[in-house]
Amino acid sequence: MVEFLDWLRHDTVGLLLLASAGIALLLFLIIKVKLEPFIALLGVGVLVALAGGISIDALAGTATKSGDALLEKGFAGILGHITVIIGLGTVLGAILERSGGAEVLLSRLVRVFGEKGTPLAMGITGFVLGIPVFFDIGIFVLAPLVYVAAIRGGKSLLLYALPLLAGLSVTHAFLPLHPGPVAAAGLFHVELGWIIVMGLACGIPAWFASGILWGTWIGKRMMVEVPADRVVAESDKGARNEPHIGLVLLTIGLPMLLILGGTFGNVLLPVGGFRAALQFFGTPAIALTVAVLLAIWLLGIRRGITAQELSELSTASLRPVGMILLVVGSGAFFGSVLSATGVGQAVAGSLAQWGLPKARRRWQL
Predict the structure, then answer these.
(1) Rounded mean pLDDT of 239-243?
(2) How many CA atoms does the CB half-sphere of 73 hold within 13 Å?
(3) To the nearest whole number, what is the mean pLDDT of the chain?
(4) CA pair distance 282, 261, nearest whole angstrom
(5) Which residue, among 260, 353, 254, 264, has the nearest Cα to 297 in the 3D structure?
(6) In angstroms, what CA-CA distances link 230 with 39, 88, 150?
(7) Radius of gyration over alpha carbons of the chain, in Å?
(8) Among the ranges 28-32, 100-104, 135-139, 220-224, which has the highest mean pLDDT value?
(9) pTM summary value
(10) Which of 69, 181, 188, 333 is the most exposed place for a label (fewest CB within 10 A)?
(11) What is the three-class DSSP state of 1?
(12) Distance between CA atoms of 13 and 49, rounded to whole angstroms?
């Protein structure tokens, strides 16, 4: 048994086996047992750490000292970077939803592109609104607009839904303020400005190919009717004091512009007060704070939404964020365990042997 544990903890094949077993157990618990991902990641991480030879003190600390423990450092390292960003981004998206900004954005795009260009308008709406709004929230907010567009056009629901979903998916996967890109920036120590640039470079072609081109092609060949229970006459909707399109675009675009300004100002401008100001307001937490305060005033209080309503709106929107943060934090802890047990080095060595030195260097970062 001692020899097996020594092989498991120090041999490359043993470490890879340990990682594979941990990931397989993790998938089994999440998919088959339906265990909460947060609990599954935490439990499997502890098991892999103990099997990999990490001491209990190093893993969890003691009752009087736990600040240097892998468990706390794994969580704190990533949550300290993304918690404020995700929280503020969620509140910003909720205010946009409550104010009717999504409907305003779509209506303006439909007028610009015409009825034939409505699928493109839906895609752009999903892409733009997907920047501050989580994927599932975006679906909930924009689904009625998809139904209305399909009813008006008399065409397949796919023609309008796929471009919208592609826009929401791409921004969720590639762009801040979403957890994945923000977490990647923190783990690899990359400024968010560069994440935005590369995310746009990769995301826009993916969005256009999967949402616009594929959505248009399949939407013309497969007829999907709007569900009967979703057919709601537009006259049934109450009159709404909708915000101006300029306010909507300002609210969505301001944090992105501030972050980009801080990133490139740090590279292109000489040391001085203006550069320092750009760096300060380009800090993601500061940029989002400015955007949220602006949205509270322009889209909220100025338009008759009371402070009490805004408080309740913020509270309700932040409830789902807790589980997201727990999953991200436990995932970071699991990654820290793999690194501490030597699995990262083992995988990097294997990749180097397969002729992938760049992948090796990226893993070791």
Answers:
(1) 68
(2) 15
(3) 81
(4) 6
(5) 254
(6) 37, 32, 11
(7) 24
(8) 28-32
(9) 0.69
(10) 188
(11) coil
(12) 17
